[in-house]
Structure formats: structure tokens, C-alpha cells
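How a chain folds remains the central question behind the approach discussed here. The record that follows shows the chain in one-letter code together with its fold in C-alpha cell form:
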Amino acid sequence: MVTRLEAGDPARIGRYRLLGQLGAGGMGRVLLGVGPDGRLVAIKQVHAHLVTERDFLPRFRREVQTSARVSGAYTAAVVDFDVDSESPWLASVFVPGVPLDRAVEQYGPLGSEQIRTLAVGLASALQSIHGAGLIHRDLKPGNVILAEDGPRVIDFGIARLVDERSDLTHTGSIIGSPAFMSPEQAQSEPLTPAGDVFSLGSVLVMASAGASPFAGNSMPHVLYKIVNTDPDLSALPPEIRELVVPCLNRDPAARPTPAQILDFLGSLPPQQQPWPLAVHRAIYEQSRELSALVSDPEATQIPGTDQSRVPEPPGADFDRRVGQFLVASQAAETQRRRRLLAGALAVVVILVGAVIGGVYAFGGSDGSASAGPNPLAGLNLTALRSLDMCAVMKDPLVPSLGQWTTSPASQQWGRCSGQAGGYEFDLDVQRTAAYRNSGRTVNGVPVLEPTGPVDGGCGRALTPATIDPQFGITLTVKSGKSADQRCVVADEALGRLVTDVEHGPRLADVRNSLAHHDPCALVDPDETKLSIGDKVRGTPNLLHSCDWVGTNTLTVAFEHTKPFASPAHPIHIDFGGGNVVDADGAELNGTVCVRRGVYRTVADDDVEAVTVQVTTPTAGIGTAQAGKCLTAQTTLNHILDDLPAVMR
């Protein structure tokens, strides 16, 4: 399942330590990584040659940002990405599991109750995917993972926005796996979310009967059968046939929506083991091997696994229980739901124009009118760190106030200030714990307001991606005028701010800059185990700093600053084993020890620097207190060693 990394591969991507390679394809390769908190992720890294192709990066950015909006109990959650790195990548949560095609091949078809569990998961996943404005386009058994607590739908690699017409879908092209395509997909016709429902039906047939309902001896034969013949359902139990027949209707307008499928199936009873025992044994063995791999920092492959089989990387998201609320409430009403489904299929031909129109207008597949998607949803911490806030303020935020009287200027990444019309505008990317949801949106972006007064000003914040802890783009407007007038100006500025941030002006030379690196990712938990605490997780504090709070507190910060001189440390202390540190009297007798190092020199002889600070709860006396300085110095050295090499 996991193969060795290649010569010259990095030890890390973003904040994730790499463990091995899961697979490769035309778009890139998939790597297994582990985050600072021990969570496994599948990282899709784009081939370098694609980055130079015209229009590739804008398309990839749109796909990633849209995929990041997909959430639900049965989909692979995109948890991080960096589109602006030398080798763009995205990461989704990895959980142990068995691909459906391999499970059926090795352990046999699923039973009726297991098919019902599978169908609820697939329909819920499609509801989440379609709700974000996507069509999966390649729903097949290899893209369904049987995890310990239910199915997961993975791989949105060829998914595109519903209303986008990319060069992958022009007339004559076929995207997807032939045996599980819809008739319209097999004929290269325009696709709607109903195509995924047809694929869902085919997947359920394969899981129950062991073969596709349109199995043939060649791809042309398979495509002919999908377009022209009825599916082979002879091996299905009656209750499964009743479920899949509407899904496999060749008329997209006659197929049920995912919501109608969920209503038909009803609630699932509590289940400890939803799959056959042999599948759960395989999941257990995989989990055990993965645990061994994670605990061994030198390991790059799992012993005893079949290297000839490279399954698709499984993914999962965090809120498993949320999916249960997507299912209709009472199993006792199953018969009523069956009648409802039959009635819905009878009238859906009349309603299909409205349904498809809703898909294009609202990004959903069930005709429910909802607010448009957040245009800033793709701005995770990696993207926020790379924003040039003064470029965002290049044009006045409130045109009626005229041009800037004091041009926007910044002393720190993620911040910028300027003045116009007697008002001071301060932009900052910061944590929004001191803000509350106002219930309003601007161009689809939620607006936050401060929970308390803002000294001399009016504050607002825009919420981009959902992040833990949550960061936002804050705007503070100050002047000598009334508070109400300041807030009127702030609200007027928000609309232009959304547009300017959405277009994403990046810091100059950001790929080579320290600015876009994650300080939380560059400290190995093993390094902090003795001095800070075991399994202490780093938490972003400011945009470019991270805290580890345990027995002591470790803070790592990245900054753009003026050159600085390293202070003298006259006391030389040898802890043995090569652990040597220089300290001074203030450090030995105080609670704080700070070490700084230059990463690179930039324009105007400024520098990009790393600052490491270790704070103890109480001051001490003597060389024992030098331990905090040893931690600071060692951490700084490791961070500088792990960062990409540059001319310093």
C-alpha cells in the first residue's frame, strides 16, 4: 500500500512529515503524511511539468477551493493545501479502509443490510458534493472506501464545477470509468448531478452482485450496453432491485435525487461493524501497520503489505455524526417513503428544468434555494499567510472618500494601514475569538463584529475558510467622527474588500519567502517532549507564530524585520552529549530565553527571521535554568535546517 519515497524527495510537505507514496497518476502522485497532531493525511502533489502549463494553476486553484467546501460524514475532507508552492498540493484526511472493489473481490459481495448502509453513505456524500457545486464524474468502487464506521467517497481529481466548461468535457471526450458511467457521460453529453446518481446505482449493483450491471468484454461493448440495453439485475435481492432501478433510468430527469434516496432508505440502526467480519479484520491490520509506520520516524513503507496493489487514497472528514442528520428520521415510515419516491419519480420529469436550473444557480442538486458559496472559502492559513494586504488596499476601499492621503504601508506580514478622507483603515489577518457572527453577509462572506468596544474605531471581520482556530480578515476604521459614521464607512468598505481579497494578491517572491511557511509544522513533537510536554500540539497564535503550551511554553514566530545583532551570551554551559549552550545572567535567572536566526536577506537589506522563545512558569537560579535556552537553540537550529535552502 505504501512504497518508499524517491531519492531527493522532501522529508516534509507543509506541516506534514512524509511516510511514503500511496500512488501516482497523470496529474501527480499521492503521498502519505502525518501532521503534528499525529493525524494521517493523503497528499496529492502535482507534477512539476503541469505547473508551467498555461491556465493550469488557475484551474487547479478553483478545483481545490471548491473541493475544500465539501463537507459531510461520508466524503474525504480537504484539510490543507498550498497552490502557490513550487509543487502545488492538497491534503485530505486518511483513515484505514478497504476499497469497495477489493473488498468484493477478496471477501465477496455485501449483504442487503450492508448495501443499505453503503447506499446511505453514497447518497449523503453526493448530497454534500452536489451542494458545493461539484459533480464527482467518477463514482466507482475504487473510489469508495469501506472504513470502520461507514463508507467514504474519495478522489475529486476530475470533478469540476457544475457550471464550468473545461477542456476536459468538450464534445467527444470521455471522463470516468466506463463500467460505471451514465448514458449521457458515455455519449459525451453535458453532465448534471443526475449522472452521479446513475453511477451510484451501478456501484450498488456491483457491491451486491459482484459485477457491473453493464459488464462487457471491451470498453466499446460496455458503453454500447450502458446506452442501449437494460441493466442486468438478475442476481439482486428484490429490496436492492427496488432501490437501484430508479437510479439506473436512462433518462436523467427520471432519476431520484440523493435526498429522495435518503428518504426512501430511512434511518440506519446503530452499528458497531457495518461490513463483513473479514473486512473489519483487514481494516484492523491496516490500522496496526499504519500505527507502526507513524511511530517509526525512519520508516517509509509498511512491512507485509502487497506493493503490487496501490489502492486509491482513502479519506474521511471530522464530523462523522453529522451525516446521520442527513437521513430521514424513522425506519417505521419506510413504506410511506417508498410511495413518496414513486410519486416523486412520476413528477420529476415536469420539475427537472427547475431542478437543473437550481443546480446551476445555487450549486446544489435538490432544488433547495440557498445562499451562494463563500468566495473566500479557499483561503486557509497557507493562503492567508501569502496575502499581500497592502496590495489588497492598492485602491481606496471607499471610493467616495477619494484617493489615499497616506498610502497603505505595512510593518508586518498580514497587516496594512492607510488613510483616506480623514479615516484610518487598518487591515489585519488574525484570530477572531473576540468577534461574533453578526448574521449578515457581504457577497456571500459572513461578517463578524467585535464582542467588545474597539478603541477609537469600528471593527468588522470577514470569515474565509473554516479553520481551527478560526482566523479572519479584520478591518478597523478610526477617526474623530462619530462611532456610527465610522461603522457606516467600515460596512461600505467590506464589499470592495471581499472582491480584492478574492482575487488573491500575493506577496512578492512568496514561493521563496518565509511568509507562507507554517511555523506549527516545523517543530517535531519529539523535540518538545522533554522540555514542553508529551504530545503537546502547536496552536497558531498570530498569523506567523505558533505556541506549544505545556510544562513550559514554546513560541515560534516568523517575521520580516530589520537586521539585528545577536546578543552576547558570556556563560558557556555543557550539558554533555554534545548539548552546549551559551547564556547570560538574565536568561539564567529569568523566565524567558529567546534565540533568533536569519533565514534570508531581502530588499533594502531587511531580513526574514525565525524567533524561538521558551518561557518557564517561574524564575530560577543557576545553570539548571539554561535548559530553556538549550531548547530554544536546538529548536531554532532544526527549523532553519528544515526550511528550503536559500542564499542567506
Confidence is low (pLDDT under 50) at residues 157-176, 300-371. The CA atoms of residues 260 and 341 lie 6 Å apart.
